[in-house]
Structure formats: C-alpha cells, structure tokens
Design brief:
about 160 residues; mainly alpha; binds 4-nitrophenyl phosphate; two-stranded parallel ribbon; Rossmann fold
C-alpha cells in the first residue's frame, strides 16, 4: 500500500488490509510505504490512528518508510493510493517496474475508474473518516477477489 508520505492513507490501508486478511485466514504479508522521505520513522497521523482505533484496528506501531525498487521483488501486488503516486513508483522502480503488479488501489472497488484516494493531509478530521470508509470497502473487495479460502469463509472487519 503506497501513498505520498506513508502517514495518512497507506498506513490505514496496511492496518485494515491486515485485519481483514487475519479474519479470513489469509496468510498475506502486508506493508505500506511512501514515495517521499518527509516522514520516515514517524507513526501514522493522529487522525489516521484515531479512525482506525474507532474501528478496532491498531496502527500505532506502524512507522513510515520510503518505497524502494526492491519492494517490487518482494511483493506480488503494489497498490498506489493515487495516480501521482503510481507515476512516482514507476520512476523509483526503474527497470524493476512491472505494470502487472502495480495498480491504482480504488480500481479494485471501481474497476477501470482510475480514481485516487483523496489526500486528507491538508483537510479536517472528517476527511480521514471518508478515506477510511473508501479504504475499508476496497480492502474487502481485494480480500474477496484474491482469497483462497472456501466460499462463505469471508468475514468483514
Ligand atoms: P499521505 O498524506 O500521502 O496519505 O501520507 C500526506 C502526508 C504528508 C504530506 C502529504 C501528504 N506532506 O506533504 O508532508
């Protein structure tokens, strides 16, 4: 899960995706990163932590890190929270870029729409609630699409 600073959007996506995967017995390795180095080592934004906590997901131990080309070797799927982030992933990855592995996150909820998760960084707390709901629905869609568990095993958070 990749966004710009790895403190607002992608930490929510990491925490929510992990919680949904755990509930559904999916043995997935989930991580997040940012394309910029502004916040490396920092915990998620207070409002990101707060909305996750309210929904039973603890992201307080996550720390911001920068996306690196090697992530494309490690992970099967890379989700960009927004179009600008996807372009930057392409630059950072260079020769390692694999267009099949890298997708716009919201295309899993709204296929072909090429929508971006709005950046709540500059806005009020409500923005984080809106973004959380978008991310939760998309993570649920991802878990349904890629789960290997038997039908009926799926449970949302
Ligand atoms: P994020 O939000 O990409 O969702 O983590 C942002 C966090 C920090 C900044 C921009 C967006 N910033 O400019 O520092």
């Amino acid at each position: 899960m990749v966004c710009l600073g790895n403190i607002c959007r992608s930490p929510i996506a990491e925490g929510v995706m992990r919680a949904i995967a755990l509930k559904n017995n999916l043995n997935w390795q989930i991580a997040s990163a940012g394309i910029k180095d502004y916040h490396i080592g920092e915990p998620p934004h207070n409002y990101s932590q707060k909305i996750c906590q309210k929904n039973g997901v603890d992201i307080s131990q996550q720390r911001a890190r920068r996306f690196v080309a090697q992530d494309l070797e490690i992970y099967d799927k890379i989700y960009a929270m927004s179009a600008d982030v996807l372009t930057e992933i392409q630059h950072i990855a260079g020769a390692s870029f694999n267009g099949q592995k890298v997708s716009l996150f919201l295309n899993e909820l709204y296929p072909g729409s090429n929508r971006s998760v709005p950046d709540p960084w500059y806005g009020p707390e409500e923005g984080y609630t809106e973004v959380f709901e978008m991310i939760r629905k998309t993570c649920e869609a991802i878990s349904v699409k890629y789960r290997s568990a038997p039908a009926g095993f799926y449970a949302p958070i």
